Amino acid sequence: QVQLVESGGGLVQAGGSLRLSCAASTSGFSINAMGWYRQAPGKQRDLVAFITSGGSSTYGDSVKGRFTISRDNAKNTVYLQMNSLKPEDTAVYYCNADLIEFRGIFYWGQGTQVTVSS
Fold this sequence. Notes:
Distance between the termini: 40 Å
Structural class: mainly beta
Number of strands: 11
Largest sheet: 7 strands, mixed
Helix content: under 10%
Order of helices and strands: EEEEEEEEEEE
Shape: elongated
């Protein structure tokens, strides 16, 4: 009942920045929370940042102070501004979201690759 499409990934050098976007299509339903997760090779999928419908955000410990999550409810889009990137940030970044009408059922995008070189 929701489709998510990520964009903005790419290759950057350590210390650089990227801005990821995730646009949601809901077939008329309303987005509740949205978040970003990442998965590096050989690692589990971990929380990067999460934002509620009211704009309250939560960050994973490894990105606090460097990444910022935001959303534009009129566009059904969530953003992730990534600054001071490190090689250990290299991963596939996935967007997720749930719906007000079906709260607690989360949907995932296909992911976008972020590679940080040293």
